[in-house]
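INTERNAL AUDIT FORM
Audit reference: QA-55
Scope: verify that the stored structure record matches its stored sequence.
Auditor: D.O.
Record contents follow.
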Amino acid sequence: MAKKVKPKTTIGAVIDEPGSTRRNETGSWRALRPVIDKKKCRKCGICWQFCPDAAISKDIRIDYRFCKGCGICAAVCPFGAIKMVKEKK
């Protein structure tokens, strides 16, 4: 019987190029909008790393055309610099 070989995987990664997100402007789906308080923001980049849609740039600006309003950025911000506010339509 052949021995099963586990594939080697690297733990952790940063995806800085989104899959199809840049081809599909999905911002109109949003009910809540993240707003960055520039006085509290320390530009640590954690929000950028965790944004599943690459709507936050490395210089910590939000591109609302692609932001779905999931709130992950606000949840992971260690400084409380991102608040989710109701979207105005």
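Auditor finding: record pair retrieved intact. Helices lie at 46-50, 72-76.
Action required: none
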